[in-house]
Write a sequence for this structure.
């Protein structure tokens, strides 16, 4: 016989109250105990926004100088690409955060044991994941469009509608990602390795084919400057179709910029309504499959897989041969943890693809023999792109390493390995990996592009300084500003310490590239533009020793601060 | 209250629970024993609705956990061995959230919250954020939250871990009183003397199979020997041939 049917709570309102209370208490604690931390966070966000705003102002001003119409096809195509790129990034970042929150967090486990409905648990986790993954989107997106508005002269409601557009846009990719994440976990074939490899290969092939088409269109447009510009824009047809959400955003923003309010409101309604419908679909899917997906993931092939050392571990061990044996053991432990965490691998695959795209663009320019796109300019772009991706990659993977030791840090604390050794091990792990990846990409692209030996050496040294310096910054600041309570690395990265680390890393990049590489490239460009009449002044190399000193400081200071903090840490 | 019928749970090729059948009536204090990896936690997770059986069915209070899980879970409270609390809530706010989640009327919730605060001596720290709590304080708060909504079934996994001797004594008295008042208690523990002292019936699980189940006298008859629960446990788990218990 059934027990009496229990009453049902208004769970939607309950979870809203819970989130509000958690936010209020968190803010109060921050104001009481960590004002410096709060204001630094606001300050660094403001610096990033201001920097983006400044760059946007400059670039939109360049459009004005070159008499390119602000409200025409070129700017529209650029916005399409921007929104599409941001949407794609939101899909990946929300999916990864949501996967961790729905399937591995203690809170999810707690709520799944309660009468909380699966769709309500999903909704509350979805809100948190979207907020985490999209704050950067809003902080970077707003300054770009405010810059555009100021230069192109737009009506007041353009600014009023901007936050509505940006906030509305994060719901749709987030919901698509959430639905995909749930369905993938619930229905993924038993052999995940083969399935993921197949999906990865197909996605990579599609992306490369599409980039190839864009590259060819771009090349033709630069060489002939005729109707081929239309060809280039034509490569974005998929993004410009009436069913593409990124194009709804572009249409709406451009209509608001032109002063066509009804024309702006319709796409805005499209963005919001489709986003909310997609969210409802994702919540419906969650109601149907979340619990069974959780069960399936928990029961996935446990006991079948036999873990052991692999050739990759042995390679890592060999690469850090210069360390003592105990530290090498720690390095291999970090590497093994990294390679066994699928959420890390997914992000690495995205970074890898982005780096591949960055490094592969040179081929098209080279084969096109483009005088206008000087090889010095392209190689500098490659160097900047690779360095920025390196900065993002290290922030994502290396900065959280100490924090992820978390409450288990006492285990390391009790081992016969000094804390300095622990830090050195993590630094060696980061520096070795980033050096190999970055040097390979840069040297390969420079050789194929025919850069002279002095350029090659300069780039190799610059990338080495950047890779080693960024590794030290990430390891040092990771130890200096750890977040032991957080178990999700993607949340550690967007927290206070992660933000400070990211901004410091970007500042370091600008300093090293500006001092070491930019003068050389400017001189070479000037030489090329004057047909070789202007000789390269030896003073262009004057920044190299300064950059080396900056690099040395970036290694010594953070590691020293991190080591001191780690030594004083109680467990 | 608990009905487990021919339940098998597999993790890929490994069978964690094999053809388990168990009935626990309302008001009984049932202790679940077994070596590490015996399948106790998997069984508990199926009782909470966190996992589903590969075959067979689990129901609580007549509600099947798979078909009618929301209703079944509303009758259950689970105290895990690693308690979860929201770090940025106070103990009182967590109790209130729990009461609201189980749809308790506001006035009754207020009364029950005060009652469990007094019962578990939380008054000194209940208005602090839980991030400042020690393990023992967390465990007591989680117990208070588990009881605040007056569940029909309380499931506790190693409930005494992290508690001081006085708290353990008080918990044992409380569990007996709750069972007397009609609450079903399903206890998983490695502390055999607690099981012997408290439980109405004891189940011994090893390698996914229920090797013995009943009162102390039943187990003695089954093991064909007298002695403490420790002696019986060792005899029953060691006596069972590998082939008989390997659930593959």
């Amino acid at each position: 016989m059934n027990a009496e049917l229990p009453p049902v709570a208004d769970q939607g309102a309950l979870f809203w109250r819970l989130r509000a209370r958690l936010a209020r208490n968190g803010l109060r604690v921050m104001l009481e105990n960590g004002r410096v931390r709060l204001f630094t966070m606001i300050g660094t966000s403001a610096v990033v926004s201001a920097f983006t705003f400044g760059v946007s102002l400059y670039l939109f001003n360049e459009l004005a100088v070159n008499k390119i119409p602000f409200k025409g096809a070129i700017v529209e195509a650029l916005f399409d690409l921007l929104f599409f790129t941001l949407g794609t990034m939101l899909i990946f970042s929300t999916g990864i955060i949501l996967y961790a929150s729905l399937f591995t967090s203690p809170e999810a486990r707690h709520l799944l044991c309660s009468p909380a409905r699966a769709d309500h648990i999903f909704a509350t986790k979805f809100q948190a994941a979207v907020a985490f993954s999209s704050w950067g989107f809003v902080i970077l997106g707003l300054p770009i469009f405010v810059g555009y508005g100021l230069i192109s002269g737009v009506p007041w409601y353009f600014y009023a509608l901007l936050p509505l557009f940006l906030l509305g846009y994060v719901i749709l990719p987030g919901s698509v990602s959430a639905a995909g994440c749930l369905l993938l976990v619930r229905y993924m074939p038993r052999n995940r390795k083969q399935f993921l490899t197949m999906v990865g290969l197909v996605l990579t092939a599609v992306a490369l084919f599409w980039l190839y088409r864009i590259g060819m269109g771009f090349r033709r447009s630069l060489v002939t400057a005729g109707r081929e510009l239309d060809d280039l824009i034509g490569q974005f047809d998929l993004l410009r179709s009436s069913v593409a959400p990124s194009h709804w955003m572009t249409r709406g923003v451009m209509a608001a910029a032109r002063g066509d309010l009804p024309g702006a409101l319709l796409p805005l309604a499209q963005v919001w309504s489709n986003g909310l419908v997609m969210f409802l679909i994702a919540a419906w899917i969650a109601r149907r499959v979340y619990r069974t997906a959780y069960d399936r993931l928990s029961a996935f092939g446990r006991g079948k897989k036999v873990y052991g050392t692999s050739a990759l571990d042995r390679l890592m061990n060999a690469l850090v041969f210069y360390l003592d044996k105990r530290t090498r053991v720690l390095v291999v432990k970090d590497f093994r943890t990294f390679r066994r965490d699928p959420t890390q691998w997914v992000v690495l695959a995205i970074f890898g693809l982005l780096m591949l795209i960055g490094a592969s663009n040179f081929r098209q320019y080279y084969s096109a023999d483009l005088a206008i796109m000087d090889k010095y300019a392209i190689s500098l772009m490659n160097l900047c792109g690779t360095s920025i991706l390196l900065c993002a990659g290290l922030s994502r993977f290396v900065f959280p390493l100490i924090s992820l030791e978390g409450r288990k840090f006492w285990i390391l604390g009790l081992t016969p390995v000094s804390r300095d050794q622990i830090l050195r091990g993590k630094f060696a792990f980061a520096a070795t990996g980033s050096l190999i990846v970055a040097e390979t990409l840069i040297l390969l692209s420079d050789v194929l592009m025919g850069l002279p030996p002095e350029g090659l050496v300069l780039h190799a040294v610059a990338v080495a300084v950047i890779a080693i310096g960024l590794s030290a910054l990430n390891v040092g600041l990771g130890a200096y500003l750890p977040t032991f309570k957080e178990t999700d690395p993607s949340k550690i990265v967007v927290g206070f310490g992660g933000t400070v680390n990211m901004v410091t890393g970007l500042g370091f990049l600008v300093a090293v590239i500006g001092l070491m590489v930019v003068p050389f490239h400017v001189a070479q460009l000037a030489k090329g533009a004057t047909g070789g009449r202007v000789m390269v002044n030896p003073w262009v190399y004057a920044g190299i020793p300064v950059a080396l000193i900056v690099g040395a400081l970036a290694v010594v200071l953070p590691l020293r601060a991190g080591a001191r903090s780690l030594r004083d840490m109680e467990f | 209250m608990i009905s487990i019928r021919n339940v098998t749970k597999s993790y890929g090729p490994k069978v964690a629970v094999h053809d388990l059948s168990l009935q626990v009536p309302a008001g009984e204090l049932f202790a679940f024993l077994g070596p590490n990896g015996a399948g106790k936690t998997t069984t508990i997770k199926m009782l909470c609705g966190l996992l589903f059986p590969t075959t067979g069915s689990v129901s609580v209070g007549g509600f099947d956990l798979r078909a009618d899980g929301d209703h079944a879970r509303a009758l259950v409270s689970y105290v895990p061995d690693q308690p979860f609390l929201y770090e940025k809530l106070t103990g009182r706010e967590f109790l209130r959230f729990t009461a609201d989640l189980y749809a308790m009327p506001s006035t009754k919730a207020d009364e029950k919250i005060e009652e469990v605060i007094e019962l578990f001596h939380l008054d000194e720290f209940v208005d602090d954020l839980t991030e400042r709590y020690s393990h023992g304080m967390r465990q007591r708060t989680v117990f208070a939250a588990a009881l605040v909504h007056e569940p029909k079934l309380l499931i506790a996994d190693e409930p005494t871990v992290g508690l001081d001797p006085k708290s353990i004594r008080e918990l044992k008295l409380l569990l007996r009183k709750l069972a007397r008042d009609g609450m079903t208690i399903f206890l998983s523990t490695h502390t055999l003397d607690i099981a012997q002292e408290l439980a109405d019936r004891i189940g011994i699980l090893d390698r996914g199979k229920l090797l013995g189940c009943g009162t102390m006298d039943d187990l003695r008859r089954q093991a064909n020997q007298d002695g403490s629960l420790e002696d019986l446990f060792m005899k029953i788990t060691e006596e069972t041939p590998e082939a008989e218990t390997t659930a593959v």
About this structure: Chain A has 22 helices and no strands.
